[in-house]
Amino acid sequence: MKLLDGKYVSEKIKVEIAEQAAAVLAKRGRKPHLVAVLVGHDGGSETYVASKMRNCEAVGFKSSLIRYEDDVTEEDLLVKVAELNADADIDGIIVQLPLPKHIDPEKVTEKIDHRKDVDGFHPINLGRMQRNLPSFIPATPFGITLMLKEYNIETSGKHCVVVGRSNIVGSPISILMARNTYPGNCTVTICHSKTPDIKAMTLQADILIVAIGKKNFITADMVKDGVVVIDVGMNRESSAVTKSGYKLYGDVDFEGVSQKASWITPVPGGVGLMTIIGLLKNTLASANKEVYE
């Protein structure tokens, strides 16, 4: 077993991003600028946004955080997004999910200008990605493809099984892995909560990507020897022994599955760090007008 080390890959790519961000500053007289909107005080969201802001600063981006209490109205949030769309100083906008139940996340996502949608969730970006046109690719799937490239993982002709069908990870990564590119050219199977025998599917996987949101859902008896495992799970549980007060678990039982896998991502230290890299690369592309003129 070898680790697909998100820390190593992300640090390597951040050096490249920092160089390119410096070039943007020299050319345009300002840094690439990412704005994050955070509603409420969800612990996971607080952690994720703080990490995104910290990484922006580390690579020479400007970052701004706009906070609302969880009683903000949907209308007020949509008005703020429209203001950010109109601000020429802003290259990327993210509205951290989940949102309070009285706010429709689809409305908010569609309100973001697709040319600043560096999370890659807007229907225009998802549609263009499906057609293999220039677009902002959802940050987590983008990060996964960058990791596969870094480790030269063979994908052509492989059977890729994706567990989970969300618009954030499962659906877009299934499209990317099937595309006629590298990484890609896989035969892809998507499994989800209504799949009658997931184990029968996962046992066929040469590449297994798991994003189902259930701690240790994939166990050693569900994979074959030599499988490449990408664990997207970030399941938080309270812990009295960690400094943060919680512990992260993946969707894959790392201890058991790593005995059979040829490559596997750890949690933490795997896909989560690569998600931030996908976000940074999208923001840089926006600043350089590489996707949309």
Polypeptide structure, described:
The protein has helices at about 5-30, 45-60, 75-85, 105-110, 125-130, 140-150, 170-180, 200, 255, 270-285, and strands at about 1-5, 35-40, 60-70, 90-95, 160-165, 185-190, 205-210, 230, 235-240, 245-250, 265. It has about 290 residues and is an alpha/beta fold. It has two domains: about 30-115, Leucine Dehydrogenase, chain A, domain 1 (Rossmann fold, 3-Layer(aba) Sandwich); about 140-270, NAD(P)-binding Rossmann-like Domain (Rossmann fold), CATH 3.40.50.720.
Could you give a short description of this structure?
This protein has helices at residues 6-28, 43-58, 74-86, 105-111, 123-130, 139-150, 170-178, 198-202, 254-257, 271-287; strands at 2-3, 33-39, 62-68, 92-95, 159-163, 187-191, 207-210, 228-231, 235-238, 246-249, 263-264.
CATH topology of the largest domain: Rossmann fold
Unreliable stretches (pLDDT < 50, length at least 5) are: none
Q: Count of helices?
A: 10
Shape: globular
Provide the CATH architecture of the largest domain. Answer: 3-Layer(aba) Sandwich
Q: Please trace the helix and strand order, writing H or E for each element.
A: EHEHEHEHHHEHEHEEEEHEH
Mean pLDDT: 96
* Residue fraction in strands: 15-25%
Count of domains: 2
Helix content: 25-40%
CATH homologous superfamily heading of the largest domain: NAD(P)-binding Rossmann-like Domain
**Name of the CATH class of the largest domain:** Alpha Beta
Question: Which sequence of strands runs across the widest sheet?
Answer: 1-11-8-7-5-6
Largest sheet composition? 6 strands, parallel
Number of DSSP E strands: 11
Task: Provide the gyration radius in Å.
Answer: 19 Å
